[in-house]
Design a protein that fits this description.
single chain; elongated; mainly beta; 9 strands; eight-stranded antiparallel β-barrel; 13% helix
Length: 167
């Protein structure tokens, strides 16, 4: 990844973190939690599984959600380390809690090549714009669903869902 792209990703992350509170009112990031995540990605077309940890509220309505995802398919295997930040909104008459976010992703890609060619790999980085929502379940956990729009040399789109269990 070039220095210019690195600067663009970092500047974009800072801009989103600074500007999101200006567009939102209220919200709650909740308590620390962990859980599985699963879904699909586009470009490459893959099945994605992984896990995450949510810090809970680190500032009013803001949570930090690092996660690890493994993508399988489209003649490659991806291991993505995501450092996501979410800004949570509060809806007045609903248990649903939508959020917007930005993430930085490091993607380790291993390509499957037919014999006699050797497998090769590369490391890519990029940013992700995130739109999601979670809803509490009866037993105290939360279900979530989110869209991640990839910026840079990472999957173009991910549609993910999962559960967060309180710690």
């Amino acid at each position: 990844m070039t220095r210019k792209l690195t600067r663009i990703v970092l500047a974009s992350a800072a801009l989103v973190v600074i500007s999101v509170p200006a567009f939102a009112a209220g919200g709650s990031a909740g308590a620390p939690s962990w859980g599985p995540r699963f879904g699909v990605s586009v470009d490459p077309d893959q099945l994605v599984i992984g896990g995450q940890y949510s810090t809970g509220q680190i500032a009013p309505s803001i949570s930090f959600v690092p996660n690890l995802e493994l993508g399988f398919g489209d003649h490659q295997t991806d291991v993505a380390i995501n450092l996501d930040g979410h800004y949570h909104f509060k809806l007045n008459d609903s248990d649903w809690a939508p959020y917007l976010g930005f993430g930085v992703c490091i993607d380790f890609v291993s390509f499957d090549r037919p014999a006699p060619a050797e497998d090769d790999s590369e490391t890519n980085a990029g940013g992700q714009l995130i739109l999601g929502s979670n809803v509490p379940l009866r037993e105290g956990s939360k279900f979530f669903a989110e869209l991640k729009l990839g910026l840079g040399d990472i999957p173009s789109l991910k549609v993910m869902a999962g559960w967060n269990f309180p710690l």
